[in-house]
Amino acid sequence: MTLPGEALASAKIPPAELERELRRRLASALFSDGIVGGAAACRLAGMSKTEFQHWLGERGIRQPLGTSDYEREREHLGSWLKSD
């Protein structure tokens, strides 16, 4: 991907961090829109799953839950409620 230099010159991101930041932002947008899965987004962002999830959470970016994620969370909640 080629980006216009004049657009990047006005970015409020230090040049040394620009590529890393753009990769993370692109990965988070594609992931939160459901275009790519979590593993692909982590690879694009250059982060581990835990790092990526933390990064998303710090920015208030929602993490979509698939059906299997939802069922697993329901089971965990049910176990937690039974332990009270």
Describe the structure.
The protein is mainly alpha-helical and 84 residues long. The chain has one domain (16-82). Helices cover 64% and strands 0% of the residues. It contains 5 helices and no strands. α2 (18-32) runs antiparallel to α3. The mean pLDDT is 85.
Look at the helices and sheets and give the structural class: mainly alpha
Order of helices and strands: HHHHH
Radius of gyration: 17 Å
Give the beta-strand count.
Answer: 0
Largest beta-sheet details: none
Mean pLDDT: 85
Distance between the termini: 53 Å
Shape label: elongated
Total tally of structural domains: 1
- As a percent range, the share of helical residues equals 55-70%
**What proportion strand?**
under 5%
Q: Which parts are unreliable, with pLDDT below 50 for 5 consecutive residues or more?
A: none
Q: Tell me the number of helical segments per DSSP (H or I, 4 or more residues long).
A: 5
Could you outline the blueprint of secondary structure elements for this entry?
Layout: H1 5-9, H2 18-32, H3 38-45, H4 49-58, H5 67-82
Helix pairs in contact: 2-3
